[in-house]
Design goal:
The longest helix has 11 residues. The protein has a 5-stranded mixed beta sheet, with no helix packed on it. It is an alpha+beta fold. The chain is globular. Helix content is 19%, strand content 22%.
């Protein structure tokens, strides 16, 4: 599965990278694996949202045949 990150997350990890999710059942597992691989981003990852190309994903949502997961950090604007 390819992971895509945006904004401040790129300070902690590559903008795009492959992640072996064969043993992970849901998005919460993806989040936990990202925390393990990038411990400096742990607090930020707690606030992130996850999506595919066409839908937002809940943390309990099962992983199916997703090719891409987008990790979206919190943001504010004015």
């Amino acid at each position: 599965m390819k992971i895509h990150v945006f904004a401040i997350l790129k300070d902690y990890m590559p903008a795009e990278f492959e992640l072996d999710t064969s043993s992970i059942k849901n998005i919460a597992g993806v989040q936990e694996l990202l925390k393990q691989k990038f411990p400096a981003a742990e607090e930020l990852l707690k606030s992130c949202r996850y999506s595919t190309e066409s839908e937002m994903l809940s943390v309990n949502q099962e992983i199916t045949n997703y090719e891409n997961i987008f990790v979206i950090p919190p943001s504010s604007g004015g």
